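Course exercise 7: structure representation. Students receive a sequence record and must write out the corresponding structure in token form. The form below is the worked example handed out in class, using Glycoside hydrolase family 3 protein (863 residues). Read each field label carefully; the graders check that inputs and outputs are placed in the correct fields and that the protein name is recorded exactly as given.

STUDENT ID: A-19
EXERCISE PROTEIN: Glycoside hydrolase family 3 protein
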Amino acid sequence: MGNIRKTLLAILLTATSVTSSAQIYPYQDHRLSAKERAEDLCSRLTLQEKSLIMLDRSPEIPRLGIPQFAWWSEALHGVGRNGYCTLFPSCIGMAASFDDALLERIYTAISDEARAKNTAQRKHGKVGKYQGLSFWTPTVNIFRDPRWGRGQESYGEDPYMNARMGSAVVRGLQGPAGHKYMKLYACAKHFAVHSGPEKTRHYFDINNLSQRDLWETYLPAFKVLVQQAGVKEVMCAYQRFEGEPCCGSNRLLQQILRDEWNFRGLVVSDCGAISDFWRKGRHEVSESPAAAAAKGVVSGTDVECGSEYKNLPQAVKEGKISEEQIDVSVKRLLEARFELGDFDPDSLVEWTSIPESVVACPEHKALALDMAREQMVLLQNRDNTLPLKKDASRIMVMGPNAADSTMLWGIYFGQPTHTVTVLEGIRDKIGKAVPYAKACDITSINDTESLFGLLRDENGKPGMSAMFWNNIHMDGKPAYTATYTAPLAFDSGGNTVFAPGVELSDFTAQFKGTFTAVRDETIRLDFAHNNGMRFIVNGDTLSNRKRNDYVRYYKNELNVKAGESYNIQIDYTQFDENGSMSFDIIRNRPTTAADVVAKAKDADVVIFVGGISPNLEREEAKVNLPGFDNGDRTSIELPQAQRDILKALHEAGKKVVLVNCSGSAVALAPETETCDAILQAWYAGEQGGHAVADVLFGDYNPSGKLPVTFYRNDSQLPAFDDYSMEGRTYRYMKDSPLYPFGYGLSYTSFTTGKPEYDAAHGKITVTVKNTGKRDGTEIIQVYMRNTADAEGPVKTLRGFARVSLKAGESRTVTIDFHRESFEGWDAKTNTMRVVPGLYDIMVGTSSRDADLKKITVEVKELV
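STUDENT ANSWER:
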């Protein structure tokens, strides 16, 4: 180390001149490599400072000129939780586009917005949570079961799809190669074997998984992102794997990730995962916070999202870990920060020149619309019901999701400057006269309407003003202030803060707004919370509860008179890290399915925008409704209330178009009888309403394909907590699904010829023809099967290509299919490899056998 120091100091003698009062250390010389700078800076840190460097919110260390750094930022489908952004469709929806080229352009736009926001924040002198340069996305876990509420974060149920789409995300976020500084850091998560249930993830142990399922299904996408896409971070998961918490697993983090895959980047913990090591009722594999911190670092977790790593000095004192072991992680973290330009002036870092004007710019909104269109999947179109004619006099819009803007945001979202609801999109398309009735809520037949829009803050602007304090007494300067124009909905599931700069626990908030009644009526004040909350109307306290337990739901009726104003104040106190709070003003009228049909008496066509909601399927959602549990689903059936209305409309002779909004597969078997057309719209982002209207009325020909299997009903699903792939997804399912993986209709028709395989060049060629009367895009899919492997997948995706053809046009399509595309599990050697033998190659328009053309080829042993 002494010789290295001398060399580095010698280099500094020729450095650019500085003021006589400034002292330059090697780590401050931008001409040195990031690794050299990291080694020098690490040597200057105290043990206490090293422990702070390893926290996700790393504080400033003034004596060495080290700025604060935030490792946790979100960019799931747009810059999340950090003010305005361009909000793109949910990831599962974007997977339905089968368009990784567009996906890379989208994440390039997201990284532009992220860099611009960070540069602006640095100029303000503070970079807090969600404002940094490290983005914890993409999620490449296998969406093995549609009941998993977070499956919408992934790119579907297929390993190849997750790898290919995840790689596009990494390229877009981290920027092109050949630059001195990284644009951002991306993170592959959650490593590994993670896809619910949410309710048990803090103590659940996956201890009987076959080696085939591990290596052939759960690990391939991570391996591709590490070895080919060059992802800079990997996040370890909450649950245990083979007895060890994933963030403390030597097998996952050392043997596989470091040794076998040669990963040299960072491992970050999921939020609170290290605390799960020792907390009662969780994994309980460590006896204390210090022991948990030591176990995490020794196993290979470099950054903790949480606070247990503050105990590392105590762990060293107790002999549970050495300072040299801590240094390994500290050097990795510092090297990453040097690669991102965190210590260097903006004039040296080219990415800091990206202007704030890129945020939510027209070009990015156009990308959001392009993807929202491409991800629409037409599931049914009986008698060519679609596209509809633009005749407002015969169309009515209904459904709980039709006028809901926040539904389109999905989960882990930022704030769009404007969201086009489906109702707005349809009215823009064919005229404002299109009638609308909500008809029902997601799970119940209620004619409800939110009156939150009638609230005004103290300045007379729409919404409720809010102030947050990082203490339980509402003392001092607020940590955050804002005005909320949509119904309040806060939840700290997944360690999500209520607002930027607000802690997870021991905080307070106050919300104020004035409601002015527009008529004499009885309204309902709906609020829910699980911590302290005082609810005041015109000075009268309606509720005052200080307990910290489960979520309580309140529905208070209030008689109001037209023109009179009602001052509403909510004082909220959060004691622990499991907060939940919501508030809305509701107008409610009892109704029935027959009442709903009566409202549509003048309509020939009803566009029913239904499905489910990201308020119900997401991370650790605290909901108490039929079919949902802690963010997961207990049933994949369409809620009965919606089924009853769809059936009643059908029996009344209406043509029914169902627009299904969801982040997962919904069992729609009865709806194939009661609905004339079914469009799967996912959670389509800020431009979702325009995209739905474009498809419904024929201005865009749908081309999306399902990235997950749509099962017929609940009975086709194995046990949710069984991680075996037997019977799951199109790759192992023996039954016939309702709609197969890769399925999606168009307003035109396509045929494919017999494929040909060129082994010498690793290419598949096939002729595709548009045999219909409209221009359109088909997605050609290539599947593979080892004919001798009876225990293996019935087929598995190995390639795809989007092909746009004019009516009557034919084209020969070429898809890469190299030798490694035949790789699979070899039970004889217990490895993933290309086993010589006969293979079926299947090419077509979905994973269904009837949609595929098959050839059989022989793969020989390499000599």
